[in-house]
Design goal:
It holds the Pfam family DUF2267. This is DUF2267 domain-containing protein. It comes from Kitasatospora cinereorecta. InterPro entries: DUF2267, DUF2267_sf. The chain has 8 helices and no strands. Helix 1 packs across helix 2 and helix 3 runs antiparallel to helix 4.
Length: 134
């Protein structure tokens, strides 16, 4: 089921405790552009199909990545792309956006998504793997 634009942004806004939908949208755009560079094929297409059209297009037309980013480098990259962000605020933004994406994706698709990402991304999505300590 595809999440509606307003519902997606409202969920991100609430989770990130943003003052406005514009702040939530800014974070979502950057994070999905970075995430899209790490996903390929059917998994990326299926995840995009569960997001609002605008967010799906960002995921499907990502920023280019020369190599997969570790979770730590993903946080640093997010901080670099969001004006005024620090690594701590970027981690907060990532949690708000990726936990919303994970809920939209569902468990089966999230398992496939995490298989395409370096170890540790499960924590960024708010879904620690069994036996993983936060």
């Amino acid at each position: 089921m595809t999440l509606r634009w307003e519902a997606f942004l409202e969920e991100v806004r609430e989770r990130g405790e943003y003052d406005s939908p514009q702040e939530a949208e800014r974070a979502a755009r950057v994070i999905l552009a970075l995430l899209g560079a790490h996903l390929v094929g059917e998994v990326r297409a299926e995840l995009a199909a569960r997001l609002p059209e605008t967010m799906a297009l960002i995921l499907l037309n990502p920023l280019q990545a020369a190599e997969p980013l570790t979770p730590e480098r993903f946080v640093r990259a997010t901080a670099a792309w969001i004006e005024g962000a620090t690594e701590a605020t970027a981690l907060w933004d990532i949690g708000a956006v990726l936990s919303t994406v994970a809920d939209a994706a569902g468990d089966d698709l999230m398992d496939q998504v995490l298989l395409q990402l370096p170890p540790g991304y499960d924590l960024l999505f708010g879904r620690p793997a069994a036996g993983t300590r936060p």
